[in-house]
Every structure is written in C-alpha cells, then in structure tokens.
Batch of 2 targets.
Target 1
Amino acid sequence: MTETTTIGRLLRSSTTGYVFGCAVPEPEVPLFGAFVKAPAQRKQTEIVGLIYNIAFEDDPFVRQMVATPDLDEAYIQDQRVNRQVPIEVSVLAVGYRSLTNGHGFVYSLPPQPPITLDRISSCSGEEVLDFTARFDYLRLILDSPDAPADELIATSLHHAAAMRPAQDRTFFLREAGKELARLLNRDLARLENLLRRIKP
Amino acid sequence: MALELNKLTHAVENLSASAAQRLTELAERLPMAQATLKAIGLADDELHRKVQAALKFRWAGAIPTAEPVDAAFPLPPHPARATVIAADGSQIYPDRHGISLYYLINIGSIIFRHGLPLAPSTASLPEVFFEDADLYEEDGGQIPSVKIDSERDLRELAALARSAATEAPAAPTVTLLDNGLLLYITLQAPNQKLSDAVIEAYLDQLTALRDSGAAPAGVVDRPRAASVVRLLRLAALAENEITDAELRALGAFQHLTDALLFNFLQPGERSALFVNASPANIDNYQRRGHTIYLFYLNAGRPGKDSLLRVEVPEWVAKDKAKLDLVHTAIVEQCKVTDGFPYVLMRAHELAVVTMAERREFDQMVTGALIRRGLSPSVSQKAQGKAWTGSAKRKYPR
C-alpha cells in the first residue's frame, strides 16, 4: 500500500459512502472530486471514494461574531485553528480493493463500510492512475442519489487526467467520454453537457 | 416529569408581576439616588470622615477617591498591539456516593495578541487530587467546597502570572479573571488558618503579576453589588448618626444596585474609581500593597448597554497608562461578543468540565481500579438516581 497523508477520521459510514471530520483544510486537502481511501474489514480492504461535499459546521459563538465589522485576525485564527469547529467531508464509495490477495480494484460497493475513527487518506497519484485505468466506477456516481453526479464526474476526471503525462490526458478524457456515451445513451442532453465539461 | 408545571402557573404570574412592580419602584427612586451621587461630586473632608467612622463597623461600601464620584471617563484609544490573557477554572467536587473519592480542577487559559495575525495560544491544565492530605481536614472532616474554590481561584491567578511573565515584556498586557479580585474565601473560610494561607498565596501571585508589568483586572458581569449605593446612604447620614444598624439599613436606597446607579454611562465610558471597603481588602490586601479598587464600565454598544464591574489592584488604579489599557482592552474584547470579554468566554470554554467528560473520567477511574483488583461501585443512592433520572416516563392517571 502506498504511503499517503491522513486527512481526517471517520465520523459515520454506510455501504454507499462515508463522512469524515477534519481540521481546517490545508490548500491541498480535501478538495471536491478528490480521490480518498479508507480501511475496512480490519484493514483487509481499502475503500476508494470521491469527495462530493465539504460542510463547515457553525455554532452560536461563531454566529455572534459573523456580524462584527473589522474583526481582528486573531479572532478569526482562534475560531479556525483552536476551536476546531468540525468540518464534515462526505465521500461517495466508488470501489475497493483487497489488501491481502493482491488483486486489483473492484468497481462496486464494498462488502463492509469503514468504522468510526478510521483514518481517511488521500489516494496517491499512482493509486489514482491504477483506479482510473477503467471507467466502471462512473456508473456508481451516476446512480448516486446524494452526490451532484455530473459535477463530481467532471471534476474527478480532470483530477485523474492531471495525474497522467501531458501527452496521455486527451486520450484519457476521450475514453472517459466514450464510456459516458454508453452509460447515458438515453439522456443525450445530459451527455452533451457532461462531454462539454470534460472536453480537454 | 416530577415538576408539574401546571401547579406553578399562578406563582409564575405573581413572580412576573412582582418583578415589574419592583422595577417600577426602583425607577421612581433612581433619580433621587443619581442626584445624591451628583451632589457628592468630589468627596469632601466630611464624607471622608464619615467613611473612616463607617469602616469601624466593617462597612462594605465604596470609598471615594480623587475622582468625582459622578464622573464618566471616555474610552481611551486602543493600542495597535496589546496582549490580553484570561484564565478560568472549573472543578468536580468530591462525591462520597461516587466510585472513588477525589476532586478535580481544570484551568483553561488563552493568550490573545491583538495586532498580530496569529491564532491565540490556548491551554487546559487538569489536576486531580486524591490523597488523604488533599481530601481531609486536620479534624478528619472532608475538605470544604470553599477550599476547592480557593485552590481553583489560586490556580487561575497563577496561570495568568506565568503567562504574563513571558508576554508582558513584548507588549502592553492585560490579564482578566471572570470574577472580582477579592477572594470569596475571606468571607466563607471555616477557619482563619486556612483563609490566611490561601490569601497569602493569592497575594504572592498578585505580586508576581505586578513584577511582570502586566495590568490585572477582575470582571463581574451583571453585578448585583451595592457598594456605591452604600456610600450614598452614608453621605445622607449625619456624622453622629453612623451606627452599625443605620449602615445596614439602606433606607431610601434599599434594593438599588450600583448597576442601576451608573446607567448614565454611555457605551465605552467608565465610572470613577472607588476603593472596595470590604474588610478583606482593608485587613489583607492593603497590607501587601494590593488594595483593590473598582469601577463600573459600559462595555456595550449604542442600543445595548452592558455594565460590568471591574476590579483592579492599587498599582493599576494609580497608573494612568495601565488603567486606560484595562479600560480600552475590555471594551475592545467585548465588541465581538456584545458585552463580555471574548477571552473570558474562551477561557471558560477551555476550562469547563461537561457532564459527558465527567462520565468519561469516571470510566477511566473505574477501569484503573478494576485493573488493581478492586471492585468500584457507586452508592446505591447514586445508582437509584441514575435509574430514575435518565429516562423517566409519566403514565396518565
């Protein structure tokens, strides 16, 4: 397994996805459409997911301060850094892999979700390349009732394309477009919109 | 539910009517009290003689200073760079029905550096006390809660003194406590020896604060005190009328408070300084050079007054730069919270021990006791409360 950065810990989960909490996001993590992973089944499997929502919770203390003009920077830093009002990040499960048998990724819902306080990490560039070698996971995004599917597909494909050498990116996005054309052949208006979004 | 609210509706109506009537009565007498304050103006020799006479009866009023008692001082400018430090404490008292006899003190503190784009430094320091020497008095009795309160107060001030020693050399520094600076134990201590030991340790910390160069202040929100009202009563008495009974009976000033009296202060303004005439101040603090002064401060904004009572030691009261810094720093801190210093709210948040945290700590203690081969349990009374108090149902009769 590739060593990657822990970006948060699991708050709650289900077979179709999970929500993790983290401190104030650094510029590089977490981002909408980013690939993340969580351990499951006592670290026998690793669930790959896509971040589809980032929510900043508030509390009465913060609400009181919002209306204050000319807020000293130290107040802002105190609320952001010290008080750690939870940031909830929602993830859609789009596949998993076994860490014991060495087989590749499986593009369906995992056998079990991760459990409370499990570490959530961002996928390495190599893992994103491996996972997006096939486009079977796009069906899971399109079927999701919770995630903004079209936005998530477009953003995650651009993330995955950016991991590839410059000369391969157009080919990758074109192949993704072909897969979307197969999946959305009965919804041409939506397909056209998506294809515009992923156009290299 | 055990509290049958339908049986209290009549009493609640009477309560609100009584409160409204009291407010009306006070409002009628307030102009007379404020006129008395204005008439005193700068305290003359006669009033000072009366104060000296009253102090012989351990009078708990406010002693006028060189400032006119009806004065209102405008808000000084806030420096571009200043540091405000606050500390607050909370405690778990010993519970003889619990799984083990202990008490816990948790001190939260925050160092807020105005003018620097940095997150404030915050800390929580918990301590648990469980040895016999901690829990029992010399006569074998369990430690009184007032002693635990004093230990907490002492640790709050010590936390401020530690932080001030490192912060004050870098910038003008104010330290705030969510309370007056006169220890409550001076009124409540079960024995003099205990009281003296605590007060001496407390005054040592005030000395450390003075040496650091910081300006400490105690802040009391929604003060109920009538110290200055007592001064008005004293002023109204002839010198030969000053007796213990006359001083205790406030006469026409009955039930008026200093907060009402100083409702003429505009947002940002402070009242005149007074010396707290509490016997504890005169007997203990004055001797060590830490006589406590007080003033009232409107830390609100136009349309929403917020009157605070602020206590400072003599060496702040007599140092204009430090006094102005305390004045302006408190008002600045209140801007974001609508009337109470932000740092004190945060220090409380860092200190408070919630019921959930207390349960978790009890579970930690239980686990540790079991690993030692003990069989901890709560008393049957406590168990009964847990059974009946958590998920009570009410069946129709």
Target 2
Amino acid sequence: MWRDAMLVAGKDLRIEGRSRVALSQVAPFGIVALVLFAFALGPDRQTMARGAPGLFWVAVLFCTVLAIQRSVSVESSDGARDGLRLSGIDPAGLYLGKAVAVAAQLVVLEALLTVGVVLLYGARIEVPWMIAVSCVLGTIGLAATGTLYGALSSGLRVRETLLPFLLLPIAAPVLLAGTRIWQSAMAGGVPAQGMQWLRLLVVFDAVYLAIGVVLFGPIQETA
Amino acid sequence: MAPAALPPSAVSLRDAVALSGRFPLLAGVDLEVAVGETVLVEGPNGAGKTSLLRVCAGLVPLASGHLSVLGLDPSRNRVGVRRRVGLLSHAAHLYDDLTVRENVRFAVRAAGGDVARIDPALERWGLVGRLAKTSAGKLSAGQRRRVALAVLTARWPELWLLDEPHAGLDASARLLLDQAVRDAAASGVTVLIASHEAGPVEDLAGRAVTVTGGRVTGTRDLVPVASPVADLGDVAPTDGPVAHVA
C-alpha cells in the first residue's frame, strides 16, 4: 500500500512540477482572494487582523477545491483513471498517494497565504508552532476529504460544480477548528483552548483517512 | 480409458450479462478461450466487442452469469485479475505532462512489473532517443498508441485484450504489432483481438467469434499465418520472453 502511495504521489507531484498549476494559478487565486477580503473589510487594520484567521482558512478551502479538481482532472484525460484501475494498483495506496500529493501542494500554498495574511492584514502570530501544527493537521483533513469526494464526483459530468457543493460542508470542521487555533495562536498566553481544537482536528483526520482507505476502492469502481 | 484432459480456460463466460444503467452491453455471452489461444472477436460497431474486452479486464462487472479470467473470479479478486491482464483500448491511458519514458515506467511499476523490461519495450516500438524524453501531450495519436503498446509489452501480462489494435498505427507499427502478438502467442500468452475489420488481423488468430447485439452468434476456425516480416530494421522486436524464439 505505501509503495503504491509513494508511486502515485511522486507521479502527481512530478506532473505538478511540469504543469505548475498550483503555483501559477491556485496560489495567485488564494492571494487575490486575501486582497479582496481586505478590500471588503476596509482600511481598519484591527478589523483585518481580527478577521485574519477565518479569512485565511476560507482562502485555503477555496484553494483546496481547485487543487482537488486538478488532481481529479489529471486522471480524467485519456482514460488515465482506467489505466490506474487496470494496473491493479492498491486502491488504498492510490487514495493515500493522491492525498499526499494534494497535501504537499496545500502546505506550500498555506505558507504563502500565511505570509499574505501577516503582510496584508497585519496579523501578529504569538505562538508560531500552533499555527504550524494547525496547518499540518488541517491540510491532512482537507486532503483526506477532498481526495475522497473528488473520487466520488470524478465520474460525473457536473463534477466541477458538484465537488465544492459536497466538499465545503464536510470541511467545515477544519475551517472552524483552524480558525479557533489561529485565534489562540494570535492571542498568545496559554493555548489551552487551541489544544482542544487541535485534538478535534486529529480526530477528524483519523476518521476521514480511515474512511478514505476503506471506501476509495469501491467509490472508484462505481464512479 | 480416461478422458483427454481439457486445456484450462483463460477466459470462461457463461450466459454473461453486463449492463450500463439499463442498457445491455452484453446480453448473454457464452465464450471459452483456452490458455495460449489467439481469438479474433469480430462484429459491427456497437456489437459489444469493446464491452466484452472490458468485462474480461474486470472493468465492467457482470449483472448476471459467470466469468472466470485465468482461473480467477474478477468480482472477488479484481486486483489479482488486473495484474495479469493487459488491455489496449481506444484511450492510451497516458499523462500528458509526463514523458514517454516516465509514462511507461509509471505504468509498469504500478502493475508490479519488471522495470528492466522498460528499455527493451521502448526500443521495440521505436520510442528511443529524443522521443522517449518527449511529453506525451506532444505526441501524435499513432505515437500515443505506440506508447500504450510499449506498456503492454513491458508488462507482458498473461492475457492480452486488444481493442482495434491496428487503429491509428502506420504500416511499420502494424507489422511490429503483428509480430508482438505472434511472439506473445508463441510464449503461451492468450490474446483476444476485437476488430470490426477482420481482414488485417485475421492472420494472427486461430479462431474467430462473431459478436452481434451483445451475444456470440458464430464461430469459425482460422489458420494463423507465420510472420511475413523478414526484416524490421532497427525497430525489430527486442523484448518479451520469446524474443529469442521469434
């Protein structure tokens, strides 16, 4: 399973390295979203800093939808999905590999968006490790759910519009927990409240990774 | 006197029905293909030839009936069947952003194949030099077909399912394909060739079955012809288990 996962992740990341869709399209989209949020909030830096955690995660969610759609479309052209099925590759390995590749791209995007939030909104991060851990756990959760729902929508003609409809409500706990953790990290002091939300993210990740490993194969066969 | 042992079936379909929604793809197919046999599946467009191959590859499940591929039940051992079967379909299953060599390498590794066979397979299909480093997205349809064939010959599975194998290939590639099928048959590989034009591939098969309306409606014996290719030049077959035999 892990051999197949690394094989698929390497393939997807190599494709991304060649096409540079994440860097040339998804990342600029995320930055533009942050700028537009800033316009909507007005020139008050305090208001922007207060809204920074939520706006960061909303931008990450939008970028996740684009990254997942790209991950799905890579397998849609020239019957590549059938090629993967025909190879007899382990479905769980395929799922984990696709999720790892998406997660790797999201981590880079989140780093860029974090810089954007600090520069644009004047957000001050008092507990950086908490931000880092929330990004890693949030990324795992988004990649796990996104890859699963991407497979679910992949066989449908309306997948471009169906995927956000399916994914955004499911990813709401990541948005909520990530925002609360960021608020704690920006407030400083004892991050006890943030730890509770971190635990929620750990449970969310574990549940969706387990569901994905079990269900990705059957979903892929029927989608 | 003990009865003569029957050859084991590579493909066994009994009253096989496959559906796409409510549309019948196969409407009760009965077909036995022995191990090592090369069978031509002929019939008009829409007769069910492609569906028959996709069922044998485990890509389309049966709604009813019985299917055994290389002694395995695809509904219970999907991965096991697919690892031993190769399907050359209308799509080449390539990633446009990967090079020819990267595509073949990924496909072979994903199928658990031997990576040492990649270079000989690329040479066999003339995919060498700059072409091997070209992105698949820049290839012509015929070149993409050659890459798909390179994947097939690098993997060298036990059952080859070839859907309109000559489509999109130039004359030299058709000769190479015919030779590859003969090599495969000589090494004991079972080959099913689906074609709406029997003529060009009739020489490769020992038997032809006619599919019409999702059913096998006829069968006839054919006489395989030995390879007419004496000299394939610098793209002569160089891989496969029986390259030394051919």
